[in-house]
Amino acid sequence: MKLEKELSPHAQAALEQIDKCTSCGLCKEVCPVFALSLREAESPRGKLNLLNSLLNGGLNSTAVGVDIFNRCLLCYACQDACPAGVQTERVWIAAREILADQVGRPLAKSFFLKRILPSPRLWNLAFNIGRRLPGRGESIKLNKRVLPKPAGNRIDDLLPEELLPEGEPVGTVAYFPGCMLTEVFPHVGVKAAEILQRLGYRVITPRERSCCGAPAFNNGDLATGRRLALRNIELFSRMDVDAVISPDATCGGAFHHEYDLLFPTGSSMRSAYLELREKVKDFGDFILDRLDSGSDVKFRNVERRITIHDSCHLNHLQKKADVPRRLLSKIPGIEIAESPLSDVCCGFGGSYSIYFPGESQAISKRNLENFQAEDGGIICVGSPGCLWRLRSEAAVMALNVQIVHYLEVIWESLLGAEKEFNLVTQNNADISDKSHSTEDLFNNTNTQ
Questions:
Q1: Looking at residue 308, which CATH number applies to its domain?
Q2: pLDDT per residue over 87-125, tens digit each?
Q3: What's the CA gap between 216 and 373, in Å, rounded?
Q4: Where are the alpha helices (DSSP H) in 293-350?
Q5: 214-235: buried (b, 16+ CB within 10 Å) or exposed (e) per residue?
Q6: Residues 193 and 69 reside in one and the same domain
Q7: pTM of the entire predicted model
Q8: d(CA 110, CA 221)
Q9: 181 with 273, same domain?
């Protein structure tokens, strides 16, 4: 292993964070992976100690080390719980990069990250193939791995590139739905754009946008993540818009946090990135500011009892767990039933759910059992990754529960009385083939 003085900047930054750790163990109490395995090596403290030994030459990089660091949801609950202020967002990704460079990545993962993810042609081909693969509900099985099943149509098939505002125009926004809303839940992504339109915004959804890069840098491939980030920075920097809006907390977190790691002080793109970061807004936070600034938009009464599941990237990285609650509280008739496990990761974690499906399902099952105990009528989430993971597990458990993105409830109150929406059914039929009234969103279960 390299000596400390020869380590990469990311490795040096990781060591600086490791040196802050006092080994108090409070991080173990909030780690969903440790709660499942009870293995010290899989706790945040255990991983910090292991990485410290790797970086200082006490241990060699091995497949065991790679497996341990991959068994992390990147939920960053440990970062919030750490009294010493260890920024694990600067450690876990660096660890995956270091180990991947030393040991290598599985061939299939490497091909996906380096070839498919950056290529629009191969990306579209992969999703077109995925639409034809057999599966159950919103999931497909591929080599014993469970993945989200692409919907019949992409969001770009359903949403025009330019959506003109309703009423008095108040501004123009660029819309960044993210890959999950583009490919898996396009009906949810369309609703987000329609809410922005109702609030008076011209909504531009650029067709040349790229993936935010989260799958790449979260798996230690910072080079590919940087390529994708550069495309988005260059694209949105050219656009004359008031804000760049994303309803996917993972994408919003990427722009505000991981891009900061990709373009550190001294980078030639640092200035352009910082300028763009000021414009990137979380969907809920943005519309909450619009409503609080004196918008005359009125919410229709919606009698629903709701339990909220906090997206990790909205909660632990962006510190905006209150946003969905404040928004939903504006709707007459909404009752929010809080859950003691609302801030525990759903078990998705991107590639975690693919490579460790049993553990991922166990974490999801624990959450759903708790939500059932709270007797919430609807479970609202803030990220499409959470939406897929919890709905998939609810189907396996045969639960009679509705799980929706919180923006769908807002759409129901603002627009549901006057519009019909096209529901993507559990077998992901063509969205245009299944037209329902808006009440179907809440009257039908998600476990058909």
A1: 3.40.50
A2: 998 899 989 988 888 888 888 889 999 999 999 999 999
A3: 37
A4: 312, 322-328
A5: bbbbbbbbbebbbbbbbbbbeb
A6: no
A7: 0.89
A8: 9
A9: yes
